[in-house]
Write a structure and sequence with these properties.
- There is one protein chain.
- The chain is elongated and about 110 Å long.
- The longest helix has about 70 residues.
- The relative contact order is 0.10.
- It is mostly helical.
Length: about 180
């Protein structure tokens, strides 16, 4: 019976070691997956920032051109608006904005899921704003991507902070990065 007890003890110890090894391996795997996800988010953030910069440049060009057209004589307001629409379509501002939004969709679904689990009251617009913030877009880039004013983007971020129950002085980006 001592031999049987010893064998059972040794078998138990081997099983425990295997369980410990599996837990360690799973932990290492989870850490590597987290590192990979962080790198993907960083890369996507760079892509989004490049797209945002391109949007800024195109919007500035369009605005300057419209101002120049305003100075022309014998041209009606509706003709100016038609030219403005033509210019925007030519510069593909709208398609760039859509591309930017699709890049945000590539952000890890875990981010959206975790954020929604902790803050069930967030709307889809607020989730998209959170994605832009976590990708470190500036207020100006957020305003352009949402087709709003700079002031509106700032107010949206402050409303998001309130809804997330974090103080106005807190770093929204740092808070949201916890969900990556």
């Amino acid at each position: 019976t001592i031999i049987v007890g010893l064998l059972l003890f040794l078998r138990f110890k081997v099983i425990q070691e295997k369980k410990t090894n599996i837990k360690d391996a799973n932990l290492k795997l989870a850490l590597k997956e987290q590192e990979i996800l962080a790198l993907k988010v960083k890369e996507e953030s760079k892509n989004v920032q490049a797209l945002s910069l391109e949007l800024l440049m195109k919007k500035d060009f369009s605005s300057k051109l419209v101002k120049e057209l305003d100075q022309l004589e014998n041209i009606t307001y509706s003709e100016i608006k038609n030219i403005e629409i033509f210019i925007q379509n030519e510069l593909e501002v709208k398609s760039d904005r859509a591309h930017l939004q699709s890049q945000m969709g590539n952000l890890s679904s875990n981010f959206y899921t975790e954020l929604k689990i902790h803050h069930q009251n967030l709307t889809e617009k607020e989730l998209r704003l959170a994605a832009m913030v976590v990708m470190q877009l500036s207020n100006k880039e957020i305003a352009i991507s949402k087709n709003t004013t700079l002031e509106s983007a700032k107010k949206s971020k402050n409303r998001l902070k309130k809804k997330l129950n974090i103080s106005i002085d807190s770093d929204l980006t740092a808070y949201l990065q916890e969900f990556l």
